[in-house]
Every structure is written in C-alpha cells, then in structure tokens.
Amino acid sequence: MPRAPTGDVHALVPLPADVDVRRTVGRLRRGAGDPTWVHDADGTVWHAVRRPTGTATLRLRPVRGGVRVDAWGAGAAQALADAPGLLGALDDPRGFADHLHPAVARARRTYGGVRLARSGDVWDAVVTAVLEQRVVGLDAQASWRRLVAAHGEPAPGPAPARLRVAPPPGAWATLPVWEWRRAGVDAQRSDTVRRAARVAHALSPALDPDELARRLRTVPGIGPWTVAEVTSRALGDPDAVSVGDAHLCHLVGWALTGRRADDAGMLRLLEPWRGHRQRVLVLLELAYRGGMPAYGPRAPRARALV
After folding, report:
1. What is the domain count for the chain?
2. Where in the sequence is the domain holding 197, given as residue range(s)?
3. Contacts for 190-194 with beta carbons within 8 Å, 24 or more apart?
4. Distance, C-alpha 249 to centroid of its chain
5. Residue 104: inside a domain, yes or no?
6. Interval 133-178: pLDDT, tens
7. Are 87 and 15 in contact (CB under 8 A)?
C-alpha cells in the first residue's frame, strides 16, 4: 500500500484512549453531505477550513496515543494549532456532576468519550446556524451543501475531490438573491447572513463566549438560539443552551422528568449543571435520539427553486 502523504505541517495530538474522535468532530458536520467534511471508512476524517492566513485541509487519523494531524495550504500552521480544540482536547469536564440524575449518569457511561469540540470557525458557525433558523435540519443542511458546493473553493493538498472550503464573509455578502432562493434560503435568513458579514471581522474565536455572544446579539436576526449554537460549535462553550429550539426543551423534560417542558422548565431542570449545561444537552441528545415522543410542532419545510 502506498504511504499516506505527509502534510505541509503535522503533529500528534495526544488524547486519552476513550475519546470518541468520530462523534466529537462529527457534531460539527452539518449532515452527511457537508462539503467541508469527508469521513473515510478507515476512520480518517478530512476537514477544509479558512484561516486569516489562507485556506487549509486537515487530515485527522487516529493512531496509538492520540490523533495524527496533517495540514496543507496557506492556513495550515494556524489550522494545526487549532486542532487540539477541534478534537476536544481543550474540553475540561472537571466539576461535571453526572450523578445528579440517573439519565445523565447513564448517558455519560455510554457516550463519555464524546468531547465538546471547538471548531475555531466562528463565521462558518454563524452561517450554518442562521440557515438552520425556523426550518428542519435536513433542509438547512441541503442549503449549506448547495451553497458551499457552488461558491466554495477546492480544499488544498491531496484532499478528496469533493472537499470544499466554505466561502469567506465577503462572498456570502455579495451572493445574488437568486442563488439564495435556488438553495431554499428565504429573504429573512439571507439578509441576516449579509448583516452578519459586515461585522465578521469582529467575531474572533479568541473572544470568550460571553463577549462573542454580546457581539452576535448586535446583529438583527440573531437571537439567543443562534448565539448558543455559534458559541457551542465555534468555542466549545460548555454552558451554551439553545433556548427557543422547537424540540430541545421537550427532550430535556422527557429525559429528566418523563414529561414535556417549555424553555423556562428546561432552564430550571438544567440549573444544577450550570457551567456544564451544553455537556448535559449533548449527552441527552445522543442518548435519546430516536427514542423520545414527538412533541412540538414540525418546523416548516423550505422549498428550493428549480
């Protein structure tokens, strides 16, 4: 077998043996067809990113002792420096009291290898979260897939042909209206992305979650749900709670009390885990996926123009 090519830069990121790399980074992927991610059958994961110095391709290969990370492209050095956060190595679960509820304890026993990943891609997190406002996830994923495939750029290095780097803020800001509609994105969401693009320079991954949240809330069309989605994905915020989600509050209520709950009830139930509320949500979503009664209204389906 030919040797796998070596990146422009590479490193070994040490990780405990029980870390579930595939699920940890998989939570950042927006559907199986996300053009910025490719998962190989052997466990290798490819990811295309944009950094201030340029675009980069990351290849993540689990090896003994951790994950071998290779990076190609002008942004390779920065992408490599961000790799520990991406893999969940910066996640700190100390102080997480899973024993406070048997459902949380069971979920952690089963999915304790899943860490909170920090993508470092604030802008991509903004776009994907806005696309997911008020529509079902499959439609939002399809919109992201179509827009990145059409307007992104090929990932550098020996990446799979279908791997693409998402467009920068300026490109999103100037997309013609028909491109948004063809991808099934309504005016309210596309206008929000354009407004956010004007302040993208101020949305740095170096900010703490509270400050990033404050800046995001200055953009009309971005509210608490979108803020929590961005800080959890981009910064690995362990306490982010997506208030306003059509189904999340019901999942928490059902898992912890056997009854549905509203947002206020969800916040009360999660209060004992303040500081780790996102961690509880991740574990419950993994543990109860497909096993919860279908409470709440179905979000409207977006229609792509042909």
Report:
1. 1
2. 84-300
3. 191/221, 192/130, 192/133, 192/219, 192/220, 192/221, 192/222, 193/126, 193/127, 193/130, 193/131
4. 19
5. yes
6. 999 999 999 999 999 999 999 999 999 999 999 999 999 999 999 9
7. yes
